[in-house]
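Need fresh eyes. Consider my entry:
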Amino acid sequence: MNGFANHGLDESAFGDSKGLSAVKAFDAFPKTKPSYQTRTSTGGVWTLLLILASTLLTFSEIRRWFIGHTTHAFSVEKGISHDLQINLDIVVAMKCHDLHINVQDASGDRILAGEALTRHDTAWAQWGNGRKIHRLGDSLIGQGSLSGGGAGAENGYQEEDVHDYLGAARRKRRFAKTPKLGRGVEADSCRIFGSLEGNKVQGDFHITARGHGYMEFGQHLDHSAFNFSHQINELSFGPFYPSLTNPLDNTLATTDSHFFKYQYYLSVVPTIYTTDASALTAADYVPSTKSPASSSDAANTQQGYLFSPSTVFTNQYAVTEQSHVVGESQVPGVFVKFDIEPILLTIAEEWGGLLALLVRLVNVVSGVLVAGGWCYQL
């Protein structure tokens, strides 16, 4: 006899409800009955491998998000700028009173740089022995993008690390002191250093011997005293950041010829390093007839824009050398010709939002599990 019927019970009352049964009809993921499933050690090992792969990829995505990514954007330089600051620190193997330094630009202005820059008598033997001293054209291995190390300190010039540049720009902005001459040591060289203002147009500055290069009154220097061997400790444009290394910094060039002409051709590109790209697009324009690069608050206001402390304005440049021996009818010396490019390079370090990170983590984990399941079924 059916005991359920005697007690007024119905067997269907112990099954799924009608509403739940209707929902199950739309199940797109049919399940296998537990009685048909078998757990194996191979499946367990495969599951552990998938969990390990998902964990490693998750930490990798979080690390990439935390570090951020660097973007490079070129645009036409906005605003009207007039002045350009030139920072120079060079040692020439000639006495100071035998050298003339001048700057001339495409607008026709001529600056007597010798009066604006500082000269110190020094000895040539005191220079050229530093660890970072190199000759132009030598291997870049061992030269970092920043003094004291950085992203490319061991492998030459690599992709810029914006944080390294910002940190270097905050360091002291002073020229190093000239080494003192020892007892009995005669000064045979001249250190020329300082910053000067020029027009932001194509131009050149040159170092020549006294009585040569321009029509000047007075005695010409004897040709046997010519020696334009030099060491460039600093050559940069814009605000003076001594901790940022440029292509010609710490460059040594020597010659045995009295009539030797060193020529450097520079292409200067205005550059912005920032960790807050949104501040650049939202920056208020500050109209000015004088370039902020030459003012005392150059760290905060550059090229007519008010920047946040997370932004550094500077100028990069590429250099080409064409140096050779010249005849006695030509003028020997050190000549640097520079041209200002009309483009602005913005190097920004950016981070994605938390929602974007969450979406990427879900995609990574789900992709690993799905692909792992397919591979296990093969």
Summary: The helical segments are 3-6, 18-24, 41-67, 113-116, 162-169, 277-281, 354-377.
